[in-house]
Every structure is written in structure tokens, then in C-alpha cells.
Amino acid sequence: MAGGGEEEESLLASYSAPPDRPQELRFWFQFLFLDATFLFLQANGTFGHPQRRTRPGKPLSVVSKVCFALGGMPYQMTNNVIGFFISIFLLEVAQIRPGYASVILFGGRAWDAITDPLVGFLVSKTNTRWGKLRPWIIFSAPFGVASYFFLWYVPGDFSEEARLGWYFLMYCLFEAALSCFHVPYTALTIYLSADPKERDSATAYRMFCEVLGVLLGSAIQGQIVAGIGGSTEKDCNNPGATVSPEARADMEKAYLIGAGVMGGFYLVCAATVFFGVKERKDVEGGSEEEEASFFQGLKLVFKHGPYVKLTMSFLFLSLAIQSVQGNFALFCQHSLGLGDQFQNLIIALLGAAILCMPVWQWCLVKYGKKTALFLGTAVFIPTLFTLLYIPGNPYAVYPITILGGVGISVAFLLPWSMLPDVVDDFTLKTGTRREAIFYSFYVFFTKFAAGISLGLSTLSLEAAGYVTGACSQSDVVGFTLRMLVAPAPIVFIIISLLFLWSYPITEERRRHTKVALEHKRDKARGQGQPGALESSLEGSTKV
Question: What 3-state DSSP class applies to 26?
Fold first, then answer.
């Protein structure tokens, strides 16, 4: 397109950086106060700008944003309960030896290598009167709830090998059902609105609900386990003692009750998204996904440099977080001797993450998404290094745990808000959209990180001589747990930072892409042809 670059540059010039600052600030206040105040201010022109063009379509309502955001809770609640509790449940309640637990945890995540991309492809082929995404969310929910409940059930009179098969099957079924829920849910972000600012605002609501889901899920599960499961202290007074059958039965009951509560949240949130969110069909900017084969789509997506770099950075950051999360309960119990404080430490960790989100939002506005994510990720390094030497003193452990929450906060807020920027950048370059594939692999790498970290962790514990059902473990096990929550995550974080350093989408490039796409959409609407935007994008200049 001759002259296309000059035309886009002239458009970009009318979108100077300063007018975006009030919009970015509004993004955070919407996040905290559910948009009511700022919708009033916007209606009265407080945040208007004379140079900004009116975008087509109405802004998303507060109700739509809240209904959409609630859909993020089931994934975070169930996955974080699994992340914090599955290792200690399999080893000390179900009493499966670490080698078998490693097969269950890693095998379930490896299954995601098939289910996540496959679901993404099937979603792109779906077209119903309810949309292509929402039917997957509502109809997969009952299967997810059932398999999650039985994942925490301890079958009686099963051999260890039979229990291995049971938990492997339930874990795989749950991960498949969760993929059918979460892949279309995350892709729904693009279908909420054609306005990137509205999508960012909806993403902020979602991030708040997801962090709230993490806090609620872990707190509810922890308090149920502590309250109903009771204490094993009377069983563990003598060296070499094991937990009594009565205490194990109480723990089994506690985990099942917790699973039932999580399942109730899961169903309510799925129904809220289905009935409360409208899936728009006029925001798709590129060619239909059905026209390209799955493997052609994969080739296009993984040749897109910004997506590869962001995904790899997110993968290694997730590996670091999952390594700490998966071993935190055992670390508190066998390295620090603070097993009775585990539930409260989780609340301190996640509470700090929520409270620090305004700080990272301020950094996002002032320095941009990439810089804010870099700073937040770097906070983990001194925190994790301290875990190598910290004594089992609550007054020392709680401040370090709270500092860890500062870093986790940015990991919740930013990576998912950066992915729509990558999708828009891809659309501008290729004239096609591959949201389902982009999001499905992004979800997969998060789960894959958990499987790798948990699988390697349980194998390390078996090599260190972990004894299933024992009240106390050897010093070698305690030292191994310290290694799993400090040096290994630090290495993962450094690798994550290297990939993030090379991530090319800056704030200036993001604004350029937004302006160029809006211009192409306006031209397509002016021509009144469904495929006009695709043809107009094919010749656009690479950003």
C-alpha cells in the first residue's frame, strides 16, 4: 500500500502519549471501584480529549465486566489449591510414594500438551447461536466439577498401583475439562469489545477476581483442612511415628469438603459468564480462523517473535512461582517446622499480592508494561535467596512471605494484559487473527510449568529419602526442600528476565498498532464488506 505508512504516522501523531495517561489511570480506578465513579466522569467529559475519535459501539457496562471477571475465579481457585495442596495430599493423605506422585503430576500436565491446543482448534471451528466460546464454558463446567471432586477422594482398599491409576485418570479428566473452560474464557477477552481500552479495563476486573479467587480458594481450603482435618501433633510425639488412621480419615473428609466448596464456585461462575456476557461478532479484524488448518495456524503463531519471547518469559516465570508454590507446604512443615502456620502464611502472601497491585499499576502507567513486569519479576530474586538461610521463626518468615507477595502481584497483573497487544500486533502484520491458538498455548505453558516443577520436585524428594506417612523427615529432605524453593526458582527467573529483555512491543509500538488497526477497521466499515479489513491489512507495513 503506497503511502500507507505516511497515513498511519499522521494518525499516530494525533494520538500523543499524554492523553493516554488519564486513560491508564482510569484503568486502575475502574479496577478498584468497579467503574461507577469514572463512568459518571466520562459521561460528563472529564476524561475526554478533543483529538480522540469516537469509537463505534457502546462501552462495556459494569455488569458485563463483573460477569466476565467472575469467570476467571474457577481456574485460579482450583489450580492454586492444586498447586499448594496436591503434593502434600498425595504424599501424606493418599500416601502415594513420591515417584508415583511425580508420574501423576507430570503426566497430567503432559496431557495438556494435547488438550489445550486441541481445544483451541475445536473452539475456532465452533459456531452456534450462543457464540463460539460461551457454550464451551457452560457445558464443560459439570465435567470439571465432578473430576475435581474425585481428584481429592481417597479410594478404599486400592493398592498403591490402583491409586496411581485413579489419581492419574482424575487429574487428566480434570485438566481436559478445565481446558474446555479456560481456553475459550481467556479468548473471550478479544470478543468483548473492539476498543483496546475497554478490553484492558475488563482485564483489570478479571485480574482482581482471579487474585481474589487465589486468596479465597487457598484460604477456604486451608481453613477447612486445618479445622476439620485437625492436628496430628498427638500422633507425632515419638521419633519415627506415623499419622494414625483416625487422623488420616479426618484429613480425607476435610479435602472432600473443600473440593465440594470449590465445585460450587466453579458452577456459579460458569453460569454467570454464560448468561451475563455478550459475545460480540463485530470485533474480529482478520480472516476467519476456519480457513486455515490447525498446523498452518501454529506455524504462523510461533513464527511471531513477540509471542514467542513473551510466552517463554511467562513460562520460566511460571516455573519459578510453581516451584515455590508446590513445595511451600512441605517446606514449612519439614524445613521450617511451621506446618501449623502454613494456611496463615498463604493468606499473608496473597493478601500482600492484592494490596501491591496499585503500586504495579502506577509503574505500568509511568514506565510501561514491559518495564513494570521486569521490575516486579526481579523482586523475587532477593526474596528467594533469603529462603536459603531463614530460620523457622514466624517473626522472620512472615516479612519474607509478604515480600514474596509483592513480586507475585505483578505476575498476576501484567502477562495476561500483554497478550492482547501481541494478538493485535500479529493481526496488523498478517491480516489474520488466531486468538484461540495464542491463548491456548499461553494457558498450556502455565500448566506445563506446574507439571514440570511438581514432577521434578517429587522425584527430588524420593531421591532425598522422603518417607510417606512419617511425621518427620530427615535433614536431607529438609535441605532438598530449601533447594527447591530458592536456587532453582532464581535460575528460572533470570532466564525469564532475559527473554523479557528482548520482548519488542514497547508502549510506542503498542499505540502505533492500535491506531493502525482502528484506521483499517474504519476503512473496512466504510467499504461495507466483511472481508475488507483482511485485504486492507495484507499490505500494511510491519511495525
Answer: helix
**pLDDT for 410:** 79
CA dist list (Å): 107 to 90, 171, 395, 480: 14, 9, 39, 23
Query: Do 276 and 268 form a contact (C-beta atoms < 8 A)?
Result: no
Give the tens place of pLDDT for each residue, 28-85. Answer: 333 333 332 222 223 333 333 333 333 445 788 889 899 999 999 999 899 889 888 8
CA distance 15 to 8: 11
Tell me which DSSP letter residue 506 carries.
Answer: -
In sequence order, which residues have a C-beta less than 8 Å from that of residue 223 and are 6 or more positions away? 343
Helix axis angle, 98-125 relative to 73-88, nearest 10°?
Answer: 160
- Contacts of the segment 57-64: beta carbons below 8 A, 24+ positions apart: 57/193, 57/194, 57/195, 57/280, 57/282, 59/193, 59/195, 59/198, 60/192, 60/193, 60/198, 60/201, 60/202, 62/34, 62/35, 62/36, 63/276, 64/192, 64/202, 64/276, 64/277, 64/278
Q: Hey, what amino acid is at 263?
A: G
CA atoms within 13 A on the CB side of 322: 30
Residues 268-292 pLDDT 10s? 999 999 998 888 775 544 444 444 4
At 24 the three-state DSSP class reads helix
